[in-house]
Write a structure and sequence with these properties.
By secondary structure, this protein is mainly alpha-helical. It is built from five helices and no strands.
Length: 186
């Protein structure tokens, strides 16, 4: 009985949850950043640091209507990328596992990789946007470097926690139906 979109004959490794988990984590982590920091607490938008960025992007003051409009457009581009990461992560997950989905969603391996992806999002976005490009900061102002460092530290903790969670689980093997909650160890 075929359980994945590709042949999983004897001797091949089970479909990995790493890629879909990381893609889901990147997208979901981006949504947390965008919804919480950009929209709810309004600490920053995508271009709020461009008055002192390192790449020469025009400054759009978020305290003016035209500036807020442009920042909102770029927040929308950011959210589109997050949405695409989640959509692609779900598509890859579905392609790899077409049976036993309930066991996959309860897998510590999948959720460990989701945390790793979220942490990777924080680390890459934090280093690139906050430090290298300087297009925005977690919270601008006199203590912005500490907020940016805390964001990076959270990213590192999410990666470490995700790897620990994943390590404590067993990879899902769709070839072995009913092999326990998380499947057979590979």
């Amino acid at each position: 009985m075929a359980t994945t979109a590709r042949d999983t004959g004897a001797g091949t490794a089970p479909a990995s949850l790493r890629l879909p988990g990381i893609l889901l984590g990147v997208g979901l982590g981006g949504f947390v950043d965008g919804i919480l920091l950009h929209q709810l607490v309004q600490w920053h938008h995508m271009l709020t640091g461009t008055d002192h960025d390192r790449i020469g992007v025009k400054y759009y003051d978020p305290d003016t209507v035209p500036g807020l409009r442009m920042n909102t457009v770029w927040d929308g581009v950011f959210h589109t990328v997050c949405w695409l990461a989640v959509l692609i992560g779900l598509a890859v997950l579905y392609a790899r596992v077409t049976s036993g989905r309930r066991r996959v969603w309860g897998s510590r391996v999948l959720w460990g990789y989701v945390l790793v992806g979220w942490g990777l999002f924080n680390l890459v976005e934090g280093v690139l946007d906050h430090h290298v490009l300087g297009i925005h900061h977690v919270r601008g102002g006199p203590h912005q470097v500490w907020w940016d460092i805390a964001f990076l530290a959270l990213g590192a903790l999410l990666v470490a926690g995700g790897l620990l969670l994943r390590r404590g689980g067993r990879p899902f093997d769709p070839v072995v139906p009913g092999a326990g909650r998380e499947g057979r160890a590979a």
